[in-house]
Write a structure and sequence with these properties.
By secondary structure, the protein is mainly beta. Helix content is 13%, strand content 39%. It contains three helices and nine strands, in the order βββαβαβββββα.
Length: 152
């Protein structure tokens, strides 16, 4: 098994096509961060680098090592991370109490301070989800066409 490196591009098969994501942070103690590209392909693109130019993407925590080891994802290339790539300072999640939606938690990723907002600003609508996804949830999101704009 080859080692996972920053910039590695991975393929995940869904019932609607092949999805791609890039490793942007390796964290041996916690969970890796991936950049998920919101487009499915019938076949592997001729140029994997073109996949990274898709403007519709988000970041999420993902247990990449175990998924790779279990062959749930396949490494298909490596594309250097953009110079100055910054991981999200803030992420968001729904705030629910007893199943009732009360707004959004905006979480500072460095301090873990949470701010509750009822309605998201346009800027906050671009925040990636908080948390960690597994391969099953990632597939579901890709198959459904889920993206940050549609997340309600």
């Amino acid at each position: 098994m080859t080692k996972i490196e920053l910039g590695d591009i991975f393929e995940i098969n869904t019932v609607k096509g092949k999805g791609y994501f890039q490793c942007v942070k390796i964290d041996k103690r916690n969970c890796d961060t991936i950049k998920v590209f919101n487009q499915l392909y019938d076949e592997k693109p001729v140029s994997i680098e073109n996949v990274t130019n898709i403007p519709d993407f988000y970041f999420i925590g993902f247990a990449l090592g175990p998924a790779f080891k279990r062959k749930l994802v396949e490494k298909v290339g490596n594309v250097s991370l953009p110079i100055g790539l910054e991981l999200p300072k803030y992420v968001r999640e729904k705030h629910k109490v007893r199943g009732q939606f009360l707004g959004w938690n905006i979480i500072d990723t460095s301090t873990l301070k949470i701010q509750l907002v009822e309605n998201l600003s346009d800027e906050q609508k671009q925040l990636s989800p908080a948390g960690i996804w597994n391969d099953t949830l990632l597939k579901e999101k890709l198959e459904s066409g889920w993206n940050l704009e549609k997340w309600e």
